[in-house]
Amino acid sequence: MHFLALQGEEIKKILSPRALARLFLHNMNKQNLTPDQALNKIKHYCAYQERSHSEVKEKLYGFGLHRNDVDELISLLIEENYLNEERFAIQFAGGRFRIKHWGRVKIRYELKQRQVSEYCIKKALASIDEDDYQKQLETLFEQKSKTLKGEKNLFVRKRKIQDHLMQKGYERELIVQLFGRS
Predict the structure, then answer these.
(1) Rounded to whole angstroms, what are the CA distances from 141 to 138, 153, 171?
(2) pLDDT at 3 over 60
(3) Which of 159, 108, 104, 158 has the alpha carbon at shortest distance from 136?
(4) d(C-alpha 44, C-alpha 33), whole Å
(5) Which of 11, 48, 85, 88 has the fewest Cβ atoms nearer than 10 Å?
(6) pTM > 0.85
(7) What are the structural domain ranges in the chain?
């Protein structure tokens, strides 16, 4: 049964007030745009910042478009260079490394979550300068060490630093090497 075909009182009898509110909000948030209208909006969306293919597809489906229209618009955006997976991956990796101080493991995971190809992930990770990466790891190590000065147990302190660096996405081998040097 399609609820939108029912009239006011009939809907109230079938659905709870909470379900009615969800239905109303769902239909209110969903836009029904023509492919031309959607193209104009999505060009602005892509021009504002680099986007992954999956983000753009999700947005287009949110405009109420069908699969054929979405696929057509995606290929048009690629042709007009509004959408470039490799460029997105490199920008994403560089930004997350410089601003959020993420390591390669976490960046790789997030790019996979965004359905970026393995080729683009490798290219993005290769764009991170190795010396900068090592310096950033050492800086994070020093910062975390300073916050744990009060920790008397050496093993607990070492474990907390290691957990912190691994949570940031740095490789276990690099962390072990860093402990070996300090």
Answers:
(1) 5, 17, 13
(2) no
(3) 104
(4) 15
(5) 48
(6) no
(7) 1-30, 35-126, 130-181
Q: For residue 5, what pLDDT is reported?
A: 44
Residues 6+ apart with CB under 8 A from 35: 65, 69, 72, 73
CB 132 within 8 A of CB 95: no
Question: In the structure encoding, which two tokens stand for residue 90, read together?
Answer: 């490199």
Q: Which residues does 86 contact at the CB level (< 8 Å), separation at least 6? A: 119, 120, 123, 124
pLDDT tens track for 19-28: 666 656 555 5
175 exposure class (CB count in 10 Å sphere: 0-12, 13-18, 19+):
buried
Local structure of residue 4 (DSSP, 8 states): G
Measured distance CA(174)–CA(177) in Å, rounded = 5
- What's 16's DSSP letter? -
| Per-residue pLDDT tens over the stretch 147-165 | 999 888 999 999 999 999 9
* Residue 109 CB contacts under 8 Å (≥ 6 apart), including other chains: 169
3-state class of 49 per DSSP?
Answer: coil
